[in-house]
Design a protein that fits this description.
Length: 99
């Protein structure tokens, strides 16, 4: 499973889904999630693409992560509040995927 954090990384998520990778996108903005789902369906990638509205730092799905893709845009939140979710992703990502 590839976990994509942030709708700004949607192009990467769709690229991976086009290559038969199961993608799970998380974003705190409902409109961004709906737009991402709509685009995935319009590009016929809906079977391999899921999106969910999540407040970062509060919850992550209980899945084994093979690859984590993070939106590279600067976060409006202080860096201290974004460090814990990144560490959580690192712990949940399969060791073979880390290079």
């Amino acid at each position: 499973m590839t976990l994509v954090v942030g709708a700004g990384a949607l192009p990467a998520a769709l690229f991976l889904a086009a290559y038969d990778v199961e993608v799970f996108l998380l974003d705190p903005d409902l409109h961004a999630v709906e737009a991402a789902e709509s685009r995935a369906v319009s590009e016929q990638l809906g079977a391999r693409f899921q999106a969910l509205v999540v407040q970062f730092g509060a919850w992550l799905p209980d899945v084994t992560i093979d690859l984590a893709v993070l939106d590279a845009r600067p976060s409006p939140r202080p860096r201290a509040t974004t460090a814990a979710p990144r560490r959580d992703l690192q712990v949940r990502t399969a060791p073979a995927a880390c290079t």
